[in-house]
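Memo to structure team: turn this sequence into structure tokens by end of day. - J.P.
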Amino acid sequence: MTTSNNAESYEHAHVHNVYDTIAPHFSSTRYKPWPTPHRFLSSFPAGSIGIDAGCGNGKYLSSNPDVLIVGSDRSAPLVSIAAQNHVYPSSRASNATHENHGNTSRVKHDATAGIADVLVADALTLPHPDARFDFAISIAVLHHLSTRSRRIAGLTEILHLLRSPSATNAEGGKALVFVWALEQESSRRGWKEGGAQDVMVPWVMRSRGMPTHHREVTSRGKEKGRRKKEKSKDMKRKESDDEGLERREQTAREEGQANEGKEEEETVHQRYYHLYARGELESDVQSAGGRVLDSGYERDNWWCIMARAQPT
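Reply from structure team:
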């Protein structure tokens, strides 16, 4: 990819279209916040205002009920799900201030039930005023941008929205960024240092419209209910065996492998990812004009907390 138009077209085909297609099924597997993002969001005092750039189904929008988080995502179907699942009390939302710039699609629920402040927006052109936000998060988003210049631009976009350092707040606004790591030797994916960094990752769906991830979660819930009713040891043993089979099928499908004896057809959607090598995210933050406040590794991801550069 040598031009911005080529990169945009590539991402439209291998990222945006895919998530629009798999949105309900993808959302069904993304329901529990990770520890580090949850701790980060919980650290801000009541009345703080922040953004979730690439909010997906909005699973982090409720991590801290005392702050206001404006969520955005490139996928309209995921934004619609976020609006349905995460609604602020109308009394709190009415007291919050947020200026909307640009031609974007905002989704709101009826004020009597509350407001879900989420909108459709591209991560490289966020429609918010500069230097107004106390915090930001970008979880599993930047690795879908297909060139380094675009990934740095995504970091720059977030940095511009954060409050500047001041005499009363030396750090200013802070942002937490998560990206997939290249170093995943201990995971089933087996990616490791020195390997290819630009890869296609399959999302596999059965013909009935339910991904393997969702099937496993649903099966666990049903089996838990059955175990309360069934007293037979033979039944319990059979359910345990079924759970093991479901987990093995999940791993096989995520690797794009075919399982023998399946009667249902499967559809594979390939998603583009850039796998970040150790130190690469911190380097990109500095190239974007930011300061690295902290960084680490969690759940096969590199993460970094960044802030705007100190004024000179």
